[in-house]
Amino acid sequence: MMFVAQAAEYHVNWVMNMHGWGNGRSFAAGDVLVFDYAVGAHNVVEVDQTGYNTCTPSAGAPTYTSGHDRITLHRGTNLFICSFPGHCNGGMKIAVKAH
């Protein structure tokens, strides 16, 4: 008999001041984050550590704009910001570690 692990799905209400989002949760590679926000008001950009620290995405960074973005986590640290002016600096960023 073969068992298949089911990936978990987590909804992220993508707003300012995201500090602490994910605290107390355990994430695994393959889990899906669903970022919910008003189209045109925000975006979601996958960044590296420098981009996360400086709130500046690198050229060609994956950018999502649907307002209901589904992003599959990879093993390790997954970093996301909103690149709209002032949003990341206002706390619109999260770091998610997946095992």
Automatic annotation (TrEMBL):
Domain Phytocyanin: 8-99
MF terms (GO), sorted A to Z: electron transfer activity; metal ion binding
One Gene Ontology CC term in the entry: plasma membrane
Keyword Transcription set for record: no
Keyword field contains Transmembrane helix: no
Record Gene3D superfamilies: Cupredoxins - blue copper proteins (2.60.40.420)
One Pfam assignment: Cu_bind_like
SUPFAM superfamilies: Cupredoxins
Keywords: Copper, Disulfide bond, Metal-binding
Designated name of the protein: Plantacyanin
Name of the gene: ga07091
